[in-house]
Amino acid sequence: MTKLLEAPTTNHPPRPRRGTGPARTAPTGRGRRRPLAAALGVLTSPKYGPVTVTGLLFVAIFVIGGFRYRGFFSGQVFLNLFVDNAYLIVLAVGMTFVILTGGIDLSVGAVVALSGMIAASLLQTGWSPGVVIPLILVLTSILGLLVGLMIHVFKVQPFIATLAAMFLARGLCYVISQSSISITDPTFIQLAVSRIPLGAGLSITPSVIIALVVVGIAVWVLHGTRFGRTVYAIGGGEQSGLLMGLPVARTKVLVYVISGFCSGLAGVLFTFYTLSGYPLTAIGTELDAIAAVVIGGTLLTGGYGFVLGSVLGVLVLGVIQTIITFEGTLSSWWTKIFIGALLLVFIILQKVLTARRR
Amino acid sequence: MTQQTEPAAPAQGAPPATATAPAPVVEMRGISIGFPGVKALDAVDFRMFPGEVHSLMGENGAGKSTLIKALTGVYGIDAGTITLAGERVSFAGPAQAQAAGISTVYQEVNLLPNLSVAENIMLGREPRRFGGIDWRAMRRRSAELLAGLGLDVDPWSLLGDHSLAVQQLIAIARAIDVNAKVLILDEPTSSLDADEVAELFRVIRSLKDQGVAILFVSHFLDQVYEICDRLTVLRNGQLVGEYLVDELLRIDLVQKMIGKELTALDDLEHRAHAAVVDETDAATFVSATKLGRRGAIEPADLPIAVGEVVGLAGLLGSGRTELARLLGGIDRADTGELAIHGEHVRLRSPRQAISKRIAFSSENRRDEGIVGELTVRDNIVLALQADRGWFRPIPKKKQDELAQSYIQALNIRPGNPDALVRNLSGGNQQKVLLARWLAIAPRLLILDEPTRGIDIGAKAEIQKLVFNLAENGMSVLFISAELEEVLRLSHRVVVLRDRNVVADLENDGLTVDSLLALIADGRVASDDEALDERAPAVAVAAVGSGAGREASAPAGSVADAGPTAPTTPTTEGDRS
After folding, report:
1. Which residues span the membrane (chain A) (predicted)?
2. Is the Cβ pair B163, A24 closer than 8 Å?
3. CATH number, domain A49-355, options 1.10.10, 1.10.3470, 1.10.599, 3.40.720
4. pLDDT, tens digit (0-9, with 9 covering 90-100), for B107-120
5. Which of A278, A315, B262, B330 lies at a 20 to 30 A Cα distance from B44?
């Protein structure tokens, strides 16, 4: 009422607002707000909403599992989520960078298989792990660089460019060998079997440490460096970022290098887990990684999301898998069905929650 | 300085005021830029003095944006020199220009809604410590800057949570953080209301006092006259001249901008009013009864007669666009009925509406109107081709004829049917859009904000066109935020408020003030409260009154450009 009455006194026909319709008068974070309203504010915020929901969901599933199954509610079950999914966490970290810029990387699963094949075949011919692992990381980073340049220089859609890289990597696996190569290198075996005790009968593997270090670095890079903020800026508006004078091109290429590096590292961690290289391995893993990132609250259009959210997304996938294992009677393929349903719910949730603001 | 003359218009140029400003901070000389098929700038001179608000005036397509982009390094220049604070410069991109002290705030706020206010101000030059961002210093610096502009905003809040007006001021905070010597504001007020404009002007004045040279580009003459000290007029990529605002009458400015007399509008008004009488007993073309849609528009009645121009007036969100979308078949009505020539119809899609010869031209020209990547010709024939069906392609020759006739009739520039529409100025894009709908020979043309963001000349041409179309028997539903425009063109005005139709009036003696009163509280205001003599800050209004003073001037060529041709290619609209 008062707002409308202002119009004639200014004697100025109201100018239409550009973009998103009526003025967005969202809370500014100051002033007295009721806790409920504050909670609602967090939930509907595109920044914190989805990741909060994921966190709550993880806790809920874990608690339900704890009530339903004997022995579920233990520290080791929780830690095993990390042990079993260390490579997926690393993949999801790389994928988070890419998706934050609004891109996508479909090649990561094939690159995991490729790095496993390279590791297995080179170790078989007697190379030292100290050379093989860095070599893999360099090679997969270079592949990422090529993909990034293809996307940037030739303006190829990330979907297509990484699809090409996926076929390339998968094909190279078969060039190396058509069948499984087992790894007998003592260092790899050592890394595969060793457990790091945490006391109270709990333990983790070296892979978990590596994965968590990667997560830590990624968090710092995304939130503490100019590069990281530019990643968010590109997702928020590439054109705006350009006009602000940000190094958009360099950053866009670099996220694919990071994703390539993470895929290589994930491949190495995966071989610690499987102790073999097999060309058909990790098919569809790229989709698991994307699912984890999306469930973890990163918007597929870019700009919003957290690495820790993606870790949470991996844990949600892991806990569903664990529940199905505990259930015993269900086929493990049910995991996929649950993940599919969950993904659907999450994407709709993101739409609904953020639509209230837009 | 004084020795600089204005080659394009030596006779008209006011002598530069050297008393207050010792040396220009920016001096561009002989700037030329060409795009394929277009000479965007032709040997233009331009300069700015520190501590001065300078306005760049011209129609859309005059070269204002191009000149700004040349200055900020977005475009390379083909010829000419740019001097900043006495030194020759040539920027490879906006980042370099910004580093040198030239910052730009664009019409569309080019900030990042997903990041915090502090980051939006500091991004790209964050304070760093130990290789990472020093968040504390960043917060402190951004809080200082916001306080300096008198903005009470939490630096950590998300940018997207603030209104556009605040975002605009935050963009300015970002711009001045680089210790700007020159601040360019490109159409900063186009989405702001009066109070927000006042706030912006307060900020501009304080920056001016700090010695910043400000380039203020706006379509609103009132605002230009309020805030600017000096202005440069461009036309068709050429310099017309540089003037002191105090020494240039508005009517003269307008004439310099469009290069022709603008008495057509006044003339139009009289004819529109005269025509009202003839329309009273005309047959009703379309009639909406209790037409409504939940959450968009309450059930409303809206009859439109053949050859009648009905204006919809109301605030944004009052339901004016929503009602139009129901008529255009864009949204489905969930209550009420629609009858065309008394025959009941249900419109489920725009396609059905088009088959009933109802065309809807959206206010969102860029996203729901033109296809930027296609040529002028393709854009014009699009609706007609869709209507014929894709298996009966319009022959190339016919397309050319069609495009050519509309280009001439609507005076679309550049008149090249192969030009990509995205390279055209806003006004010309609007004309292409109009041509597209006129090509299907509609019986009812719904125009939602057809004149928004376009220059005076194109505005006049479009208004003239609407008028001519109605005279030839087409019904028009005309929506505009500019009430003067609604009043000038409409035979009848329907006023909406809070999603309700509050009045349906013959346009006979209506005034802006009475409309505003209706919009504000749903009743006609008494005389004393309605009479506010300030002219609304609308460019056309200023032109209209200015032109009125020189009623003896011959009818301008804008009027002559009024097309009668668009209604003739009906043969092409014939369906089998």
Report:
1. 48-67, 79-100, 130-153, 159-177, 198-222, 253-275, 287-320, 332-349
2. yes
3. 1.10.3470
4. 666 788 888 888 88
5. B262
